[in-house]
Structure formats: structure tokens, C-alpha cells
Design goal:
nicotinate phosphoribosyltransferase; TIM Barrel; elongated; 407 residues
Length: 407
């Protein structure tokens, strides 16, 4: 058996991440060569994305807090967007928005580029997809069901990103615990099959679970969804809070019409207050199609396996022989440190040379987070972040975000 010697699972420990052990080898080569030549120049690096995996050109950056904890104690200065901030990309301009700016002597932090990007890329992918679904869902209930589709070590991260982006609940036990909220969940098909009778399974659930747990019956296991929904109402009566349809894609047919039938039959039997939730392969298209007829969505893989945001971390300033920082960048990048000023009423952004003050009514998106290795920013609570993202999404409903360079 080829067991690992110092751990059970193929995951990095927190001390290994914090110590830079999860870097790429070429950063170690860089450190060695620079050290041999007694070089350790002061540089400024920016983290940005040129594009996001959706046509609307905006994303929600998360992972800022973890980057702060990663870089804490290193001799660097860091300015960053707030956790959960909306950033904007565009194919029509060379502009890109730095979500993070690091200044320090390069050998002191070069190896941390890999984990910095990893923390931001993964989490921001989850939060961006979740925010897009929240925007489409309007005021419908959204529950995060997807951690079974991702590595267990990422479960709390996925649930945090989804909750910050506006989901109403999460199903993962540890994720809910760390968020400080009550978890959400109904019942799996395996539970129904253990009884062999939907009615007996629903009765046992009703008899055994605390009263505060909503009686949401899974109604697509053995029979037609409409038939099982009627059975659930007849079995639980007024105690039935909702039915959940987890219909496989191969059997959905015209899903909207199917759900209309369920709604009609429940209403005809006095179940007008019984809500309808759907789950199973829910993505943006399904939310847009069904939001007029259902009360909520259980969203899984589309968030927990969302495409990551392709952030880059590039040098934009390098110390010259006189000790002065001068603009410098590789081909295709814009040299010099930059700031982002936003009109928050429209999410209309301008990218300017760092140090240029914002105009009246504008906000500066990059603000101090670390000075000489010490975290100086007070971080918002999860609930505050959630409310903040919600305010941004309300603006996006009315105005498409945009960005331009200010020369």
C-alpha cells in the first residue's frame, strides 16, 4: 500500500500553505539565482484578470481575507479591494482592474505568488457564479447543495463564497458551522428507498426531526412528480412546508409544464401554501426558465465546480540603480501602479495612475490592507459582506458595469 507518511489525504496543511511550500519550482529557482547575484529589488506587483467566464464582464472577488492571512508577517505592503467587491473586465480596452497590489523586495514574497493566485482564483470563481445566479433568481430562495461535487477540503470555502454572494442557505454541515448559520437540507433519494414507501419515509421524517426543521418532501423517487406531490400533501397535510423536485434531466421533458401541473394539483387540494423547490443540474438557464413558477432552487455543481477566475500577478514597477521605483512591465501589460475609482451609482470605473485622487462622488477600490507585514484593515463580517454584495447586485440589475482608462 502506497500510504502517505505524514497525512491521510492529499491536501496541504495550513502551515505548509503559510510557509510557501505549495509554490511552483520556478519561484525557488528565481530565489536561488537572485540570491547568488545578491539581488533583491523592490518591486510592485498587481493581481488582475483580463476576462471572466461570462459575457457580462464582471466578477466578485473573494479570497482577499485569506491572502491577508497568508502574507501577514512578510515585509510587504498590500493594497486590495474589499472582500466581495465587484471587479470589471472589458474586451474593448487595454484596461484591467487590479484586485490586489503588493509592494516589497521580490525575494521576500516571490514564492507566494502561487498560493495568492490559488486563493483568489478558486474562491472568486465560486462567488462570481453564485452572484450571477442570485441576480437571475431575484427574490427566490437559493440553497447551496454542491459540496459533494468538490474536494471535501474546499467545502467551507465554497459555502462561504456562495453565502457572501447572496445564497440563502448552505447544506454542508461544517460550512454552516463556520459561517455561524443554521444549515439547510431535506432528504436524499436513498432515504426514501430505505423505506420502500414514500409515505412511510415522509412520516418517519415528520416523527423524528425537530419541529423547527421544515417538512420538505422529496417527490420524484418512484412515481410521477405530480403524483408524489399529491401523496406528500395527503400524508403530511398542513405540516408539509414544501416539495422538492430533483427530476433527472433525462426525464424532465417540458419541465416548466410539469411544475405547473404540480402547482395546480397542490392548489386544488388546499396546498396553496406548499412551496415548490427544484434541484439537480440547476444553472443560469434553468433559473431563468423556472423562476416564475418555483419558490426556490437547490444549486449544486454549477457553483461548486464553477470555472475559476483567471487572475494573473505581474510586475508593474521595479527599483532602478538609484533606488527609485520606475514603471516596467512585460509585453501586453500596462506598467506603473494603478488605482481604480468608481461611481458606485452605476459601477462605472476608471483606472488611473496610483496617487491620482478620485473625483467627487467616486470611491477608491484599492485601500490599504497590510503595511510592513501587519494587517491594518478591519474585515467585515460575513453578514456585512453579504449585504454589500447585495447592494452591488442591485446596481448591476439597472446598469451594466463598465471600465475605462483615464490617460
Amino acid at each position: 500500500m502506497n500510504d502517505l507518511r505524514d497525512r491521510i489525504f492529499w491536501v496541504a496543511r495550513e502551515d505548509e500553505i503559510k510557509g510557501g511550500a505549495v509554490t511552483d519550482y520556478y519561484f525557488l529557482n528565481t530565489e536561488q539565482a537572485l540570491k547568488a547575484k545578491e539581488m533583491n529589488p523592490l518591486v510592485t506587483m498587481e493581481v488582475y484578470s483580463r476576462r471572466v467566464p461570462n459575457p457580462d464582464g464582471w466578477g466578485v472577488v473573494t479570497g482577499i481575507y485569506e491572502v491577508a492571512k497568508l502574507l501577514e508577517g512578510l515585509p510587504v505592503d498590500v493594497d486590495a479591494m474589499e472582500e466581495g467587491e465587484v471587479f470589471v473586465t472589458s474586451n474593448d480596452t487595454a484596461a484591467y482592474e487590479p484586485v490586489l497590489r503588493i509592494r516589497g523586495r521580490y525575494r521576500h514574497f516571490a514564492r507566494f505568488e502561487t498560493p495568492v493566485l490559488g486563493l483568489l482564483c478558486s474562491s472568486s470563481g465560486f462567488s462570481t457564479k453564485a452572484a450571477r445566479i442570485r441576480l437571475l433568481a431575484g427574490d427566490k430562495t437559493l440553497l447551496s447543495f454542491g459540496t459533494r461535487r468538490a474536494h471535501p477540503a474546499l467545502s467551507p470555502l465554497i459555502e462561504r463564497a456562495a453565502y457572501i454572494a447572496g445564497f440563502d442557505g448552505v447544506s454542508n454541515v461544517l460550512g454552516a458551522k463556520l459561517l455561524g448559520i443554521v444549515g439547510s437540507g431535506t432528504m436524499p433519494h436513498s432515504y426514501i428507498l430505505c423505506f420502500g414507501s414514500q409515505q412511510e419515509a415522509w412520516k418517519a421524517f415528520d416523527d423524528s426531526l425537530p419541529k423547527e426543521v421544515p417538512r420538505i418532501a422529496l417527490t420524484d423517487t418512484l412515481y410521477d412528480e405530480k403524483t408524489e406531490a399529491i401523496l406528500a400533501l395527503e400524508t403530511l397535510g398542513d405540516r408539509l412546508a414544501a416539495v422538492r423536485l430533483d427530476t433527472p434531466s433525462t426525464r424532465r421533458g417540458e419541465w416548466h409544464k410539469m411544475i405547473e401541473e404540480v402547482r395546480w394539483e397542490l392548489n386544488m387540494r388546499g396546498g396553496r401554501k406548499v412551496k415548490i423547490f427544484v434541484s439537480g443540474g440547476i444553472d443560469e438557464r434553468e433559473v431563468e426558465e423556472l423562476r416564475d413558477i418555483v419558490d426556490g432552487f437547490g444549486v449544486g455543481t454549477s457553483v461548486s465546480c464553477a470555472p475559476s477566475i483567471d487572475f494573473n500577478m505581474k510586475v508593474v514597477e521595479v527599483e532602478d540603480a538609484s533606488g527609485k521605483l520606475v514603471p516596467k512591465a512585460k509585453r501586453g501589460d500596462l506598467s506603473g501602479a494603478k488605482d481604480i475609482h468608481r461611481d458606485p451609482k452605476e459601477i462605472s470605473d476608471v483606472i488611473v495612475r496610483a496617487g491620482v485622487p478620485p473625483d467627487k462622488g467616486q470611491e477608491s477600490l484599492l485601500t490599504p490592507m497590510i503595511r510592513d507585514g501587519r494587517i491594518i484593515r478591519g474585515f467585515l463580517t460575513v453578514q456585512q459582506l453579504r449585504e454589500r454584495v447585495g447592494r452591488r447586485l442591485r446596481v448591476i440589475r439597472e446598469h451594466r458595469p463598465r471600465v475605462r482608462l483615464q490617460f
